[in-house]
Design a protein that fits this description.
This protein is mostly beta strands and about 110 residues long. The chain is built from no helices and 10 strands. The strands form 2 sheets. The chain has a 6-stranded mixed sheet, with no helix packed on it. Strands 1-3-8-7 form a 4-stranded antiparallel sheet, with no helix packed on it.
């Protein structure tokens, strides 16, 4: 499974941004997908995840109510809609196929105050 994350950028506090994670390869559509992030000097932390069907989603408390994860099965892409961004959301965001060791490359999100 190959995963490609993109969509990061520089935004201001309060802005919105959508990240995308495109999955390809054998059985790519059979896995749930998660988003994690790693801020400078900190450990990687869980952000959100969705099941392979897209019916169930899970969020870290720090982003609940602001971030929405969704899945487009037609093109095997998982989106992370991020609203009301805060400077503390600044991090490199990674997507991964749940239960596997497959991770996409990170995409940097910088939120200025």
């Amino acid at each position: 499974v190959q995963l490609q994350a993109y969509g990061g950028g520089l935004v201001q506090a309060g802005d919105s941004l959508t990240l995308s994670c495109a999955a390809s390869g054998r059985d790519a559509s059979n896995y749930g997908v998660g988003w994690s992030r790693q801020a400078p000097g900190k450990e990687r932390e869980f952000v959100a995840a969705t099941t392979w069907s897209g019916r169930n989603s899970y969020y870290a408390d720090s982003v609940k109510g602001r971030f929405t994860i969704s899945r487009d099965s037609a093109d095997n892409t998982v989106y992370l809609q991020m609203n009301s961004l805060k400077p503390e959301d600044t991090a490199v965001y990674y997507c991964n196929a749940l239960g596997t060791g497959f991770w996409g490359q990170g995409t940097l999100v910088t939120v200025s105050s």
